[in-house]
Amino acid sequence: MKKKRGGKMASQYYQEMQESFRNNNKSREFPAHTAKVHSVAWSCDGRRLASGSFDKTASVFILEKDRLVKENNYRGHSDSVDQLCWHPTNPDLFVTASGDKTIRIWDVRTTKCVATVNTKGENINICWSPDGQTIAVGNKDDVVTFIDAKTHRSRAEEQFKFEVNEISWNNDNDMFFLTNGNGCINILSYPDLKPIQSINAHPSNCICIKFDPTGKYFATGSADALVSLWDVEELVCVRCFSRLDWPVRTLSFSNDGKMLASASEDHFIDIAEVETGEKLWEVQCDSPTFTVAWHPKRPLLAYACDDKEGKYDNNREAGTVKLFGLPNDS
């Protein structure tokens, strides 16, 4: 007999994942940086995890069965690395956005910086287009620059009249989405960058946006502590997730698109079943979470939290990367 939740039958997926997390709910931390970690991301093949830090570096780990083994530390930026992302189909290339007014493309095969691109302002957001041809970077002055990933030259530059938070292409690469400080999602056509629509998504600051791998939904997180799930085709809100109490800083869909992890200053990461909004699991944390990223092939969640409050002495938690979903007996 299926367990009932609130009078509803639990889906088979829900039961399978609950069972999976009952046996695999261990979190482990791995030293990565000398200061807090702002961003974590998996390569498309899931072999490597990259992290970007306030310590001005990026680190890359190799995933070996149930642990991360540090492969390299990437130095070159002269200010905090606020966000990074991998090439969508090439598992060797990743790009970092920094407050030093540059972005840098790195190759894990040579461990070298392939290109340094100078930009106009302090960079805080970055994403790589699904077709791999373009990198978009947003800065503190609400300018988004579109950079050719091969020539490393700027293709276009857009100054926005609102506070730009996170940016993303849709999976089809023909629309560009921005979340903004007024709680709106702005949608532009791509590549001609003409406004298509502005959706009033939240009553307050709309902070983050992620598209699910299947292309059916995207999710936004906002300062009102809500996560909204949107139908990509219809551009309507399908449901809201409201278990967090603090502004939602970071989101990630699992590889099958069926789970959504969301995190904030709350001391847990919420893992929801996308189709029902039900809580599948929560990952306990000691401090606010900055970044979450599901592995592209298995139910393994990488994340990074703030340094523990009140511990300013030599705190080994200063720059760790964490993995959740490891076997309890590992």
From TrEMBL:
Lineage at the top is: Eukaryota, Metazoa, Chordata, Craniata, Vertebrata
Q: Which UniProt keywords apply?
A: Acetylation, mRNA processing, mRNA splicing, mRNA transport, Nucleus, Repeat, RNA-binding, Transport, WD repeat
**A Gene Ontology cellular-component term:** THO complex part of transcription export complex
For this protein, the record's SUPFAM superfamilies field holds: WD40 repeat-like
Q: Which domain of life is it from?
A: Eukaryota
Subcellular compartments:
Nucleus speckle
InterPro entries, per this entry? Answer: Tex1/THOC3 (IPR040132), WD40/YVTN_repeat-like_dom_sf (IPR015943), WD40_PAC1 (IPR020472), WD40_repeat_dom_sf (IPR036322), WD40_rpt (IPR001680)
State the protein's name.
THO complex subunit 3
Q: Does the keyword DNA repair apply?
A: no
User: Where does the record place its WD repeats?
Assistant: 30-71, 74-116, 199-233
